[in-house]
């Protein structure tokens, strides 16, 4: 039940798009491949309600008219009981499967949407809202399918009992309907307050997940400063936890009051039906007994129906939140590029023509602009990019690799411009190890776990691991690293192993050697980079290691987002001086 290529933001027609709310649109898309099981489960719930009402009608007839309580009536009672049992079990099993299948589809949908989003959107939105969606909101949606069978079954029983009451006495049925309608009006007032509280709880939940991330990311800083830890845990984190608790407490308290109000009115209806002489109940003992049986039988389903409505509303709020968060990531591509379509696409020239890009500079609290940049890269070339902190080196690297879209100018491959539709395929030419890299625990995209020749890939990877002096700590087994519990510098070496195995035409390293000891810096600059260049790769290295500048074919110096000099590597060591400063990395 995957949702790999479905577009949840594209209803069938403009008219339906205007009419359907995001929650309804998403749930319909999630149920698209399970509509048969969903329909069968609903039918089973309705049959359960009918069988249950027939049970109480048969029981009432046997009690009110003992002379009719024969074997046939007993068999009918037993048949109704068996049908009620079978339909309840069937609907419960089907809805349980739908619950977990829908949660899995929802998580896949969210993961695919985030994976297909532009890097700028991923960086802007952050992980906290997505974590909240994948845990709390996805759970609320899955709980909807545990509430639905109860709602349908209990609703069927309540409406069936009302119909049976109408058959027994129209005045009593009208009185019961009046009690339910009056109670529902009061329930609706509390329901609006509860939904507002649930929406506020969702926003507080996003903040909570952000602080929970900081609890791990800032563990060192918290342990080194007790006052900071106390203010963070008791202050910011504690406040977010309290906000989620208070909002949800208000929401479910409002629902509890609403349910209590309706049940109270139902009790009043029972009293009126039993003691109001004009209804004629007191004059007929058998009719009174029938009313009491129906009333008591309907009371539990009515209570169950009302108590499951908060679950439906919580799911509706969560579905709206999921759609809003996903909308920030943009739509799913209607036709994703073929996997690794350009990983071996060679080129003669790759050029940036008047490329510009702007971003918010945290230090100066202003928009920082790189460019216009005019650069040309060729295979078999080693280029160093240097410059002070905050000069825009990393941003330029992200534009070059297609992770950021140029705001001005154009990127060309062999004279052909790279448009929006071609940027995903363009990115597949690059292998990059950024300064804030992430090391996955397996050789994803390189080794197919089902490929019988994966042992050869393991051997190649382990040879590289040994070359980088890590074979005593980690091994590649079945396409996965035996451990990632290593220092930052050691994990960067494993990232270099993956980069070598990808064997793409363009390599970019962002301060790779910054966390390495002098011996491995020498290996990187004097052995690995010349080897890549010798294999015809275009190699760009962002670096501050001026002692290795003579090894480069070109050294580009960046200042304030602009390239201020381009020097041949042999002369760069004499001409380029590194500026001092502690600005944030660009």
UniProtKB/TrEMBL annotation:
Keyword Lipoprotein in record: no
Span of domain ABC transporter: 350-585
Ranges annotated as spanning the membrane: 37-59, 74-96, 141-159, 165-187, 254-276, 288-306
Domain ABC transmembrane type-1 as annotated: residue spans: 36-314
Range of residues in the leader sequence: none
Entry protein name: Siderophore biosynthesis related ABC transport protein
Record keywords: ATP-binding, Cell inner membrane, Cell membrane, Membrane, Nucleotide-binding, Transmembrane, Transmembrane helix
Membrane topology classification: Multi-pass membrane protein
GO molecular function, one term: ATP binding
Chief subcellular location: membrane
Subcellular location field: Cell membrane
Alphabetical list of SMART domains matching this protein: AAA (SM00382)
GO BP term, example: peptide transport
Annotated Gene Ontology cellular component terms: plasma membrane
InterPro entries linked: AAA+_ATPase, ABC1_TM_dom, ABC1_TM_sf, ABC_transporter-like_ATP-bd, Cyc_pep_transpt_SyrD/YojI, P-loop_NTPase, Type_1_exporter
């Amino acid at each position: 039940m995957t949702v790999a290529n479905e577009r949840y933001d594209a209803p069938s027609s403009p008219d339906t798009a205007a009419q359907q709310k995001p929650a309804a649109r998403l749930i319909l898309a999630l149920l698209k491949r399970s509509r048969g099981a969903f329909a069968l489960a609903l039918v089973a719930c309705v049959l359960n309600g009918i069988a249950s009402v027939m049970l109480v009608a048969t029981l009432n007839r046997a009690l009110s008219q003992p002379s009719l309580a024969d074997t046939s009536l007993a068999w009918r009672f037993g048949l109704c009981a068996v049908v009620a049992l079978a339909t309840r079990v069937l609907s419960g099993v089907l809805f349980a499967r739908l619950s977990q299948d829908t949660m899995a589809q929802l998580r896949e949908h969210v993961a695919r949407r985030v994976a297909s989003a532009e890097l700028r959107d991923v960086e802007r939105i952050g992980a906290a809202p997505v974590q909240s969606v994948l845990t709390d909101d996805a759970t609320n949606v899955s709980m909807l399918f545990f509430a639905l069978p109860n709602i349908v079954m209990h609703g069927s029983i309540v409406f069936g009992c009302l119909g049976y009451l109408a058959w027994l006495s129209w005045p009593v049925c009208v009185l019961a309907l009046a009690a339910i309608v009056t109670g529902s009006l009061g329930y609706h007032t509390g329901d609006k307050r509860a939904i507002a509280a649930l929406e506020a709880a969702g926003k507080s939940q996003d903040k909570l997940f952000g602080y929970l991330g900081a609890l791990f990311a800032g563990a060192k800083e918290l342990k080194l400063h007790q006052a900071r830890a106390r203010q963070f845990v008791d202050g910011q984190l504690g406040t977010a936890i309290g906000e989620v608790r208070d909002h949800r407490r208000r929401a479910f308290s409002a629902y509890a009051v609403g349910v209590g109000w309706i049940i109270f009115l139902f009790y009043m209806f029972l009293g009126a039906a039993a003691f109001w002489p004009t209804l004629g109940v007191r004059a007929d003992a058998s009719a009174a007994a029938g009313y009491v049986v129906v009333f008591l039988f309907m009371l539990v389903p009515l209570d169950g129906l009302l108590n499951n409505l908060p679950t439906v509303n919580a799911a509706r709020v969560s579905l709206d939140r999921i759609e809003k968060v996903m909308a920030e990531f943009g739509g799913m591509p209607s036709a994703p590029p073929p996997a690794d379509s350009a990983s071996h696409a060679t080129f003669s020239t790759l050029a940036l023509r008047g490329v510009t890009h702007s971003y918010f500079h945290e230090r100066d609290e202003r928009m920082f602009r790189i460019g216009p940049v005019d650069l040309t890269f060729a295979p078999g070339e080693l280029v160093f990019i240097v410059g002070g902190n905050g000069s825009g080196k990393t941003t330029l690297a992200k534009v070059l690799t297609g992770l950021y879209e140029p705001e001005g100018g154009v990127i060309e491959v062999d004279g052909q411009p790279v448009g929006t539709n071609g940027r995903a395929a363009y990115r597949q030419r690059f292998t990059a190890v950024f300064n804030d890299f992430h090391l996955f625990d397996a050789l994803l995209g390189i080794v197919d776990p089902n490929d019988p020749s994966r042992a050869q890939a393991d051997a190649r990877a382990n040879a590289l691991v040994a070359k980088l002096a890590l074979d005593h700590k980690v091994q590649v087994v079945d396409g996965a690293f035996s451990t990632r519990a290593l220092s930052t510098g050691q994990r960067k070496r494993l990232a270099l192993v993956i980069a070598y195995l990808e064997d793409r035409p363009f390599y970019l390293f962002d301060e790779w050697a910054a966390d390495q000891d002098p011996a491995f810096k020498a290996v990187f600059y004097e052995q690995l980079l010349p080897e890549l260049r010798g294999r015809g790769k275009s190699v760009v290295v962002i670096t501050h290691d001026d002692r290795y500048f003579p090894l480069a074919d070109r050294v580009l110096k960046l200042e304030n987002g602009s390239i201020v000099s381009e020097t041949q590597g042999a002369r760069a060591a004499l001409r380029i001086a590194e500026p001092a400063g502690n600005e944030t990395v660009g």
